[in-house]
Amino acid sequence: MVSNNRESALLPAGITDGLPPDAEDEAEVLEQVMKILAAHGYDRIKPPLIEFEESLVRGLGMAVTHQTFRLMDPVSQRMMGLRADMTPQVARIAASRLSQAPRPLRLSYAGQVVRVKGSQLRAERQFTQVGAEIIGSANPAADAETICLAAESLIALGIDGLSVDLGMPSLIAAVYANSNLTDEQFRLLREALDRKDTATVQALADEIGEGTAATLLALMNATGPVEAALQYLSKVDLPLAAAACRSEFEDVVATIMVRNPDLCLTIDTIENRGFEYHTGITYTLFARGVRGELGRGGRYPAPVANGTEPATGFSLFMDTVLRAIERQTVPDRLFVPHGTDPERARHWRAEGWIVVEGLEFASDAAVEARRLNCSHLVAADRIQNLKPKDGE
């Protein structure tokens, strides 16, 4: 029995074909971003799509093991995994192949990632990541550089209404660090904080302490535009470790505002979802009127042979980025009828035309040109415009 063509073309949920003109748009936008990163001194690397499981899920990769597809390598008979996130691969390369490279190490990358499940904010399970990492610097200037670079890259693409939502998961962790919580209580607390569920936090006051609960509830209000949120945050009484996190947070924000004073910054000190391996300042990029995140990033400990080294960076999600960009004008395509001197076709390509050559004789070249989505036609060695005039 022959399968139905429509059924045979079905793809798994969250997996899509890249069709014209979207595939070409993504390639062009991707290269624009990579050129911006290169101009800031970020060297491009190309991690593999698939690795042995033990290296892929080691270190930072442990945080995304639940999102990693696994399969058996028929050659080595060892388990392999498809990457779900490229940052752990960048950290692996920095710690191994580039371990002797001078720090801070600036690296950029672009490639496809595949995930087991989508999320409410991101239903796609396969998409392109483009990003940059600074490895080997704990200076707040490194955080500010990557945050501003991510924003500047998106602004250069013509994206308006950009905002950066800053977070500090380590500040929250420092507040409840001394609480004797069971695993279940910790899960309930973390979920309550993610949902801004004040009732559940208050209900856990006996376990975490009244003072800790009060501090967490206060931090839930340290959200919104950066100036007002920082002013409120400065008045919250914090334990010593959490106060140090707040000071680091303030330093990064001050550096960003010097570098890019017009950048719209908001703060959400409680937000932690999607930042499984981050331990310092984090950030998510949004654009007004665009569904989903344009990208996210933050500080994390990059594994090395004898411990970790400080690192920070970001990833942009190209499917969301393309939704935020106004569609460019479709480029002109020139139809060259069958039998035209190939040298003439090469000449027009050299002038910048997209040239489509007819493969067989067409009785009406104009009709054939329009059928092939061409805007111009060569007739009697002259180029004719097939676009309708205004009002037609």
Q: Overall 3D geometry?
A: elongated
Tell me the number of strands.
16
Q: Strand order, biggest sheet?
A: 1-5-6-12-11-10-7-9-8
Number of domains: 2
Please state the CA-atom Rg, rounded to the nearest Å: 26 Å
Written description of the protein model:
- This protein has 392 residues and is an alpha+beta fold.
- The chain folds into 2 domains: 13-324, BirA Bifunctional Protein, domain 2 (2-Layer Sandwich); 333-385.
- The protein is 37% helix and 23% strand.
- The chain is built from 15 helices and 16 strands.
- It has helices at 5-8, 22-39, 53-56, 87-95, 140-156, 169-175, 183-195, 198-203, 205-208, 210-220, 226-234, 240-259, 318-324, 342-350, 365-371, and strands at residues 43-44, 50-52, 70-72, 79-82, 105-114, 126-135, 162-167, 223-225, 264-268, 282-287, 295-304, 307-317, 333-336, 354-357, 376-379, 382-385.
- A 9-stranded mixed β-sheet has the order 1-5-6-12-11-10-7-9-8. Strands 14-13-15-16 form a 4-stranded mixed β-sheet, with helices on both faces. A 3-stranded antiparallel β-sheet has the order 2-4-3.
- A hairpin with a 2-residue loop joins strand 15 (376-379) and strand 16 (382-385).
- Helix 5 (140-156) crosses helix 12 and helix 6 packs antiparallel against helix 12 (240-259).
- The longest helix has 20 residues, at 240-259.
- It starts with a helix and ends in a 7-residue tail after the last strand.
